[in-house]
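Hi Q.,

Before the meeting this afternoon, I wanted you to have the fe (ii) ion prediction in hand. No need to reply - just skim if you have a minute. The sequence and ligand are here:
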Amino acid sequence: MSFQTIVEEIMSTHHSLLKRELPRISAQFETLCIEHPGNEILNEAKQIFTKVRNKVEVHLKDEETVLFPNGIAMERGSATTPTEINQVERLTEMEKEHDSCGNALTGIQNTLRTAVPVSDARDKLLENIQLIQDDFVVHVEKENSRVHPMFLELIGRK
Ligand SMILES: [Fe+2]
Ligand SMILES: [Fe+2]
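Predicted structure with the ligand bound:
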């Protein structure tokens, strides 16, 4: 499978899921915080989620605007877009972000289970975080084991 085919599939399935679900989860956090005013642990979990969301959004943007288009260009043998980013270093950093974001989401789920009493709103939020966690596993596996090695090979060939 070509680099282009894999990354296009990743964007249309996994990236689009994150773009749809991350704002939804932020809204669910807001609702839950209104239900539990003064729950500091919940408030902290919401703030941690906001940081994770920002990190994921920058990560997706770097993939969609720099790494993926440049990988496609290298594969076609056409000109790449100049970038300030050190692409090889950014790939290593991205693999660390794959781990750290997954771990942070697991931490948030554990906090919600222990610090927030059972309610429909809490369970819907947990369910939605689980949805992105499950999809993230597949997404990360494709990038770590296929996209990144292919990109490194393409950049080495240039
Ligand atoms: Fe991605
Ligand atoms: Fe990624």
